[in-house]
Structures are given as structure tokens and as C-alpha cells.
């Protein structure tokens, strides 16, 4: 498990370095926000388009090989970007094409990683593994902007891209020592399109999954609004740029604490905890909205703790959610079902960021945040209406799951858990 976590931590750091490096490279070369938007969109669009296809690939081939290929492809794209930047000023068409390759590799790697974790780590250790992966990702997101910015200023963006390529190469090499169990690819008797349709049928069969993913999509959309409008409200009403830095840093710390603690919490009903973790994001939305209306009603001393509580909830949510998917979704469909989850998450937040400013120009900054606060709470707590969500129980001490109301668990995984408990 340590080898898996180290490799994925390297990949997470490399992934987190890319946006800052690309942003500084394009802005330094062109000074154009339009050019930057083209490059960033070139990475996002292939990622979204290819995710359903990537889910089929993750179920059709060994997850270890798919992740290995994705890491190598991302590393090659970043190495090419580094060479391009070292040769001279950045050229937008070349950077956009290489960014598209990176986005495609991210699409294929994302659902395969979920299957890889399910195959390498079994039983109660999965929650601890997912929690550690969450901590690694949080640390990467916190450290990467400063690291990339410092390297770009000291040596140039080309060297930052080459460092990123090296990290992807390291993450790829760690896969060689892993021994996944129970992750044999599905029998390839069906055509690719048939497997894609079968994956959608399997997804629809899990009503608890669809309900929870809908809630996650709403809070990702709301996060796009908050990350766009929040800094404006903080600067205007909460004390300036320092206030936003305090809020953002408190949220980062909270997410790390939540992810670290998730592996140690004895949660008997993980989906109930996931529902409340997602609903907690309504707290900072309401606080920021109130601050925009009346700063005295929601000062920094109110807004910062609200954001802290929300990010703490999300830090706990992510490992619990990943572990639940790996436990309840059959392994031979985990890539396809998980790809729909990733698609909603990857698409919703950029959409929120894109429409936040135009909506706020019409309604003001407070109204959309207050409306979204209600929607986030309602969409995430709505899952509690389902028996499949309320009655999903695990033994927090590491024993087998006592029931599967959705009927969607992996019987082989449950059998292994029973043997482990014995």
C-alpha cells in the first residue's frame, strides 16, 4: 500500500503543478487571458468527452496497465511542453495540443486508479488508503502553486514542466511493484459500444449512487460560484485580500484534517456521513451571501469557520465515498460507473466558474450564493430519503458489511471481507 500511495502522491503533485505552470507560461508569453482560456479549455474538453470511454477501458483492461500508460502519456506531454518552452516563447497552438493530450490522459487514468486501489487494497484497509490518498492530494494542491511559481520565477516555466514530467515518470515506475488482486479485465466478448451501454445500465441500477452524485454535482457547481465570487466579497466586505487568504488557508487545513481523520473515524453509516459532508458546503455559501448583504451580520469571524466546517466535511466525504464505491460497485463495472461520477465532478465546477460572474452581474453577488446554499443542502440531504442510503452499514472495526440494500455490491469483495473477518 505504501508504494501505491507514494506513486499516486507523485502523480497528484505533478497534476497540481500543471495549471500554475501553464498559466504563468502563457501569460508571460502572450499577456492574453483569451490565449490562457484556449489552453485551459484544450485540456478540459478532451477530459470530459473521453471519460465515458475511459471507464470502459478501465474495465476492459488491467487497471495497472491503464494507469501506467496514462502516467507515461502525461509525462511525455509535459516533457514536450518543457522542451517547447525552453526553445523559445510559448506558442499557443502547440501548448493547446499538448494540453489536450494531458487532458485525455487524465480521463483514462481517473477511473482506472479507482479500480487499481480496489485491487491492491482490500477490506478495512481501503478506507485508510483512500484517506491517505486524500491527504496526499490535499498537500499537493496546497504546495504546488508556490512550488511551480517559485520554479518559474527562478528558472523558467520550461523547467517546471520538466519537473512535472519527471514526477509522472516516477509515479509510473511505482506501478511495477504492485500486485492487484481481483482486477482481471472483463471478458471481451462484447463490443466496446455494448460495454458502454452496459455500464450506463449498471449505473442506473444503483439509485443511491445517482442520488449522491446529483448532490455532488450541485456542490461542485456551487464551489465554482464561491471560488469566483468569494474573493470579491472578501475584498469588498470582509477586510481585503488578507481576509480571502485566511479563509482559503483555513479551508485547505480543514480538508487535510478531514482526510487524515477519515481513516480513523468509526463511521457505521458512511453514506449518511457523505450526505451531511456534502450538505455542509451550504454553510460558507450562506455566510458569504449574508456578508454581501450585510457585512456586520457575517464578519470574517463567521465566514472563516463556516468555510472551515464545509471543507472539513468534504475532507471526510471523499475517502468515505471512494471506499463505498469500491465496496458496493462490482469491480468489473467500477471503471464505467466511476467515470460518470468523475464526469459530473469535472464538468460542474468549471461551469459554475464560467457562469458566476454573468449571473452576479444581473442578480448581485448575494442572491446566487444564498440560493445555492439551499440547493446544496437539499440536494445532498435528499439522498437520506432512500433506504439504500440510510441502511448502508459497515463494521467500523473492519469486519464485513452486514447488508447491501442496493444489491449492487461485489460478491467477491464481500466474500473476501468475510474471510478476513474470520
UniProtKB/TrEMBL annotation:
UniProt-listed InterPro entries: MFS, MFS_trans_sf
A Pfam family matched in the record: MFS_1
Record-annotated membrane-spanning stretches: 35-58, 207-230, 242-260, 272-294, 300-321
GO molecular function: transmembrane transporter activity
GO CC entries: plasma membrane
Keyword Membrane in record: yes
Sorted UniProt keywords: Cell membrane, Membrane, Transmembrane, Transmembrane helix
Its membrane topology: Multi-pass membrane protein
Annotated localization: Cell membrane
CDD domains: MFS_MefA_like
Region (Disordered): 394-422
SUPFAM superfamilies: MFS general substrate transporter
PANTHER family membership: INTEGRAL MEMBRANE EFFLUX PROTEIN-RELATED (PTHR23513), STAPHYLOFERRIN A TRANSPORTER (PTHR23513:SF11)
Name listed for the protein in its UniProt record: MFS transporter
Species, as recorded: Actinomadura rubrobrunea
Organism classification: Bacteria, Bacillati, Actinomycetota, Actinomycetes, Streptosporangiales
